[in-house]
Amino acid sequence: GDSVTQTEGLVTVTEGLPVMLNCTYQTAYSDVAFFWYVQYLNEAPKLLLRSSTDNKRTEHQGFHATLHKSSSSFHLQKSSVQLSDSALYYCALRSSGSWQLIFGSGTQLTVMP
Amino acid sequence: GALVYQYPRRTICKSGTSMRMECQAVGFQATSVAWYRQSPQKTFELIALSTVNSAIKYEQNFTQEKFPISHPNLSFSSMTVLNAYLEDRGLYLCGARDRQGAGTEVFFGKGTRLTVV
Description:
Chain A is built from no helices and 12 strands.
């Protein structure tokens, strides 16, 4: 079945430095959309980015991600993190065959001053 | 805009009792609703998918007998946790969308946090 892998459970970065959160996936479907959700403490997850187009960069709130089907990846990046970026980040995919969202295990991003 | 409200936000129930949580879509038609559970130290587990005028599909390890769901119209869904025990604690999320297509956004409510004592 479909799966999403986030290898880092915890990432700590100093404010102002860049960060990349890894996301790789496996799916048997060709019509698939990919998402990054951000979840702040005691809040519901909120959509940060989404993409279904290969090799197209998607940006929102300073974060960007590019879907690379050749490497089955959808890494999330930011060039200069802020303290307010500290949160839990989930990568997810959904195929048109099933609208079920498949989530990765999540990456806790902590930004240090 | 499209919003999903969930209530109650927090609830505490005694072990062995049941509690009902509700999900309200505002600004769009919630054709499909998914219920997830985020247990402590775990990612999201899909409990079931509900589509109006279709049978509710439960995932492995979740049953209608334990988590009965109602989805009577395009704006409302409810789920009950029957005979709740310690392993049922967590954040229950309702996610809704209004049409087919892999890229369609799913709107999440803020969740109902269940504590079992």
